[in-house]
Amino acid sequence: MLEIGNFNKIIVANWKLQGSLSFIKTYIKNIKFDSVEEQTKCVVICPPFPFINQINSKDLLIGSQDCSVYVEGAFTGETSTKMLKDIGCNFCIVGHSERRSLFGESNEMIAIKIVNCLEEQIIPILCIGENLEQKKQNKTKEILINQVQKSIPKQANENNMIIAYEPIWAIGTGFTPTLDEISEIHTFIKNNILQSKEFKILYGGSVKSSNCNEILTQENVDGVLVGSASIDIEEFNKIIES
Ligand code: 13P
């Protein structure tokens, strides 16, 4: 398993349901990142399943956007962590809010997926976050506590798992929490819920080149999880450079 502790900045591209072979060709040709020069920065690309092993760049790390709760057998349409490992995945996004809300994923299913990742030495990137209603009702911390307590198995720790705080109301909307709110929530997750300052926590939700610098300099923000801006290579290059 990769030593996540060695990275002081982690930038993850979540392409969601976007991309094609020709898009990947151009993307890889134009991405500006040299991992040899940037030893402490980690750039992870998470394309849709069919394209995962098309990203053959020595500088980039590969992740998937999901995995199965199952390991092997008669489960049509599923992709196991064993298969993901086989094709070079080092990371796997687990429990993204779109999976929770559109595909009915529960905290219990997410916990199983994390165990499956850990068994294959894949680093799970666990997504947590509140929706707008919950934010308005001042329930953010309560929601995060519940998600963390129910979805993190006991095998997981700061050396083998990453958390991504993605407020649902900030995803794809152009809105973000204030910098103070981001810092407060990340500090709360590390100190109060996980009780380990060493846990890496990424921020996700409307990250773009114009706001990522200030987000990345907030206390307890260890990186960003980028959706739509990661599809635009010029935007994503600026985010990598920040
Ligand atoms: P946007 O960056 O498009 O808001 O998406 C965030 C996200 O869901 C990343 O996982």
Produce a short descriptive summary.
With 242 residues, the protein is an alpha/beta fold. It has helices at residues 21-30, 81-86, 97-102, 107-119, 132-136, 140-151, 179-193, 209-216, 233-241; strands at 9-14, 41-46, 61-64, 91-94, 123-128, 162-165, 200-204, 223-226. An eight-stranded parallel β-barrel has the order 1-2-3-4-5-6-7-8, surrounded by five helices.
Q: Specify the CATH class.
A: Alpha Beta
Shape: globular
Number of strands: 8
Instruction: Please tell me the overall pLDDT.
Output: 96
Bound molecules: 1,3-dihydroxyacetonephosphate
**Residue share in helices?**
25-40%
Strand content: 15-25%
CATH topology: TIM Barrel
CATH architecture: Alpha-Beta Barrel
SSE topology string:
EHEEHEHHEHHEHEHEH
The low-confidence parts are none
- CATH homologous superfamily (4th level) name: Aldolase class I
From the N-terminal CA to the C-terminal CA, the straight-line distance is: 26 Å
Structural class: alpha/beta
Helical element count?
Answer: 9
Number of domains: 1
Largest sheet: 8 strands, parallel, barrel
Would you write up a description of this structure?
- The protein is α/β, with parallel strands linked by helices.
- It has a single domain, classed as Aldolase class I (TIM Barrel, Alpha-Beta Barrel), CATH 3.20.20.70.
- The protein contains nine helices and eight strands.
- It has helices at 21-30, 81-86, 97-102, 107-119, 132-136, 140-151, 179-193, 209-216, 233-241; strands at residues 9-14, 41-46, 61-64, 91-94, 123-128, 162-165, 200-204, 223-226.
- The chain has an eight-stranded parallel β-barrel, surrounded by five helices.
- Helix 4 (107-119) crosses helix 6 and helix 6 (140-151) packs across helix 7.
- It is globular.
- The two termini are 26 Å apart.
- The structure holds 1,3-dihydroxyacetonephosphate.
- 1,3-dihydroxyacetonephosphate is lined by residues 14, 96, 166, 171-172, 204-207, 225-229.
